[in-house]
TrEMBL record:
Pfam families: YmdB. It comes from the Bacteria. This is YmdB family metallophosphoesterase. GO terms for molecular function: 2',3'-cyclic-nucleotide 3'-phosphodiesterase activity.
């Protein structure tokens, strides 16, 4: 029997949390999703994931959270990682990094390994193991432990994401890209693998990656660095719904753009 996995795009700030809170249950009912994965590295003020927000998102119905280069920005989450079973850091991080980069779960009586990887292009602050060679190593390790493998790939270039999908097209059921927070138009089945180079964001659709355009324009016009401010306009849940056969073959990948009403909280003086 086939099953469905909902891969949600990066959750951006309080507006993203509000979209999850107000829209996820209805979206799960509408799509029949059996399991939900979301990138959460932009949840806490748009930069990083705090411990309290990780617990809140888990409570709201997200089965597994992932992240990339911003995942360790909040110290309370770094300290929580050794005890946290529902957040994955990149598996190809240095060996001393806290937490785990993959997890085996059971979906419809199948053992499904979910791996989170970070790309090697564009992240100058970090040095990670090559995602292709690391995938070879980890897949070999998991061959007797998991029936099906899904990969969430946080990478800065669409080309690197597509390269990994083509490389693993007959060995994994999905390679889903994150990072740019823009739902790309390249969702497809490559071999046995569902692929999209970026599955978008959860939060404001009328924005610059979930952030208020006014402040992003100001930064570009002045060259003065400043923090980004979340936007609350036209909130959506974005992502893809992937259907996978019991043999571990991707049958379908459907882009998701679900509008959700989210009210901006009043500012108290």
């Amino acid at each position: 029997m086939s099953f469905k996995v909902l891969f949600l795009g990066e959750i951006v700030g309080r507006a993203g949390i509000g979209a999850i809170k107000n829209g996820l249950k209805a979206l799960k009912d509408k799509t029949g999703a059996d399991f939900v994965i979301a990138n959460a590295e932009g949840t806490t003020n748009g930069f990083g994931l705090g411990k309290a927000h990780s617990m809140q998102l888990s409570h709201l119905g997200i089965n597994l959270l992932t992240g990339g280069e911003k995942l360790f920005y909040k110290q309370d989450m770094v300290e929580f990682f050794p005890k946290c079973s529902y957040v994955l850091r990149p598996a190809n991080y240095p060996i001393k990094a806290p937490g785990k980069g993959y997890k085996i779960v059971e979906i419809n009586n199948k053992k499904v390994a979910i791996i989170n990887l970070l790309g090697s292009s564009g992240f100058t602050r970090l040095s990670v193991t090559n995602p292709l060679t690391f995938s070879d190593m980890l897949l070999n390790k998991l061959k007797d432990e998991a029936d099906i493998v899904l990969i969430q790939f946080h990478c800065a270039t669409t080309a690197e994401c597509a390269t990994l999908a083509h490389y693993l097209k007959d060995r994994v059921a999905a390679v889903i890209g994150t990072h740019s927070k823009v739902l790309t138009a390249d969702s497809q089945i490559i071999g046995k693998c569902a692929f999209i180079s970026d599955n978008g964001r959860c939060g404001s659709a009328l924005s610059v990656g979930g952030f208020n355009p006014e402040y992003e324009i100001k930064k570009l016009m002045s060259a003065i660095p400043d923090r980004s401010h979340e936007s609350w306009e036209d909130c959506e849940l974005q992502g893809v719904l992937v259907t996978i056969s019991e043999e571990g073959v991707a049958e379908d990948i459907v882009p998701i753009k679900e509008k959700v009403k989210v009210e901006r909280p009043e500012v108290t003086k």
